[in-house]
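Practice set, problem 2.
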Amino acid sequence: MMNKILEIKNLSKFYQTNEKEIHVLDNININVFQNDFLGIIGPSGSGKSTILSIIANLEDYDLGSIIKKDNLKIGYMLQKDYLMPYLTILDNCLIGLKINKKCTKENIEKTKKMLIKYGLGKYINSYPDDLSGGQRQRAALIRTLVLDPDILLLDEPFSALDYQTRLNISKDIKNIIKEEKKTLIIVTHDINEAINMCNRIIVLSNTPAKIKSIYKIDEDNKDEMYLYKKIWSDLTND
């Protein structure tokens, strides 16, 4: 039996402007299971990032409920890597631990081992400007992983990279998250990225966003062209 760790039930969200109330999310229902790789894709402005912000308790919602497993820990990786240019890669990866007062000798060693394991060992004492865009994203992921979250929320994390780098780093990041046995929820505009990274893809409609379709992906037997055409059709025929 799959272990459900997060449930979003009948979620709706409104924004109030000076002129009117904007209905952003409408009756969203999502179940997230342990070791899920869940993609959320939809038109620009459809509330994809808002869903992540609500899960991470960065935004309130108006209707519905969110049920989380007890003591569920959430890590949030944003579009930019936000590495501090004046800190070494090791010190950048220790920021979260320091903020959470968990920067013990044991956790420092754990961080060093993770940097070595995932190909950044020779950059431990280097600075962000010495790394490529893909390497910087890997460092940002390790900074999040050392806090040992149960779920990783990724918000368009590769959008600033060129297409070929994006393909390579998305596979790289997927393998790291699998190796660390974490659950992933990723928001993306890139259909291929979602197909290659996820075992389920949720497609949202235009606002007020509803769930238009859900695709389950069999990694060993997937028709990427068929999935691409179906998702593209969903996105362009609203």
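Problem 2, part (b): a different protein.
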Amino acid sequence: MGYRVFNTPDVQWSIQAGPGYRYLETADGEEIDEAALSVSSNYYNRISPDLFITNDTDVIASDRDTYVTNDFGVTVSMSDALAMRTNLYTEYRTDPEPGFDDTDNTLGVSIVYSFN
């Protein structure tokens, strides 16, 4: 089930939630499959013709743990065909495997080519 909160040419935000099924193979080889609940949010905002931001959040909750990802990005157009994107991708687990942190962050920088 989902709902589009904003839907304009410059701002789009949609949320959705529903039941699901989760399959997971742990670091030590254990296989887990169980019912889960999924909640997602997808946000896009064009600040100017050459700058936009995105923020995508996903939550998967089950008996095993709750897994949350968030991807926040900023994209800047450098020409009609090239853009630079920087993003911060965060993963969080309420019950990580032994020896692993509950939070992991990745900073990304990329050049995007448009075939339009």
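Answer key, part (b): The chain is about 0% helix and 75% strand. The two ends are 33 Å apart (CA to CA).
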